[in-house]
Amino acid sequence: MPATPHRGHVVVAPDKFKGTLEGAEAAARIAAGIRRAAPGTEVRELPVADGGEGTLAAALAAGFTRVPAKVAGPTGLPVDAALAVRDDTAVVELAQSSGLARLPGGRTAPLAAGSYGVGQLIARAVALGAKRIVLGLGGSACTDGGAGMVQALGAGLRDADGAELAPGGASLRKLEQIDVAPLADALAGVEVVVACDVDNPLLGPRGAAAVYGPQKGADGDDLVVLEEGLTRFADKVAEATGRDVRDAPGAGAAGGVGFAALALLGATMRPGIELLLELLGFDEAVRGARLVVTGEGCLDAQTLHGKAPAGVAAAATRAGVRVAAVAGRLELSESEWREAGFAAAIALTDLAERPGDSLTRAAELAETAGERLAAELLIG
């Protein structure tokens, strides 16, 4: 006889499992396991992101339309990128154009990498009629303070001879003249909202160069050069605008792109997962749900500080719905993940038969995790 549906649907809302599963695939696999263990249960797949890599994919999975765009990569070579649009809202993911994964051959260019492609994606969104642009920061290859981004939107950044500055953070040390007037026309009537999960300022020991420069290939001397360039850029922007946001939380995000967004694009900044859940319609999806399942590659102490699974757990808890987690690795104690609001947590490493299976067989193990959660929380 046919299976009896379980009351209340299940929402599967994981972030990507970095290096193994994209968010949409993780959601599909976990959902397949739940359906197999609890036939008749309605399972809704809603992959999420926190503003970094995977933000575009999450928007597309939620019904946004993909718009391809060929733009400048971090070293200036063209790359095939995309943005997502729905009605008058566009989602721009920095990593699409200026991410580490876009570096030719994976070779870092800490002094010369720039954010010009991000500005081109924003310009494309405006040309499509977007009135609200959600800019996801994360995974950047550049430390140029967002200079390239604003140049692509029409701002003039020139040296003492009146020549336009070359791409990259190092060239900012030569900045003498800045013309930001074209930005007002380029973004007239457009709201820019930055999705960001870091609170670093632009400069100093917690700034863009010091904290994130080494991840982009910068050594000791490079870090000094980048800090000098970012400092000069901040000084000149303050002179031109009468506002100084170098110390604002998030100004140091994505190599300082957060700074330019705040100072020159008039952007507001929101916690990435909070903004993305709102954009993806999470509250509506979870209404009447019986269970929410989230996850990511590693559930650890960083998860508890604004990353996607913690945001999903908080939102589900506010809605009065139990939430469980699937992770590649689980580095939180049971008391820690329970205190964070999870009713259950399963690691792929605990399901693996051999070391390395959690990476090479991640999709299969994610299905098994879905089955286990269904058996524990839906059936048992």
TrEMBL record:
Q: Which InterPro entries does the protein's record reference?
A: Glyc_kinase_flavodox-like_fold (IPR018193), Glycerate_kinase (IPR004381), Glycerate_kinase_RE-like (IPR018197), Glycerate_kinase_sf (IPR036129)
GO biological process assignments: organic acid phosphorylation
MF GO annotations: glycerate kinase activity
**This protein's UniProt keywords:** Kinase, Transferase
> Which Pfam families does the entry mention?
Gly_kinase (PF02595)
Task: Indicate whether Lyase appears among the record's keywords.
Answer: no
Could you tell me which NCBIfam families the record lists for this protein? glycerate kinase
The family note in this entry says: Belongs to the glycerate kinase type-1 family.
Name of this chain's protein: Glycerate kinase
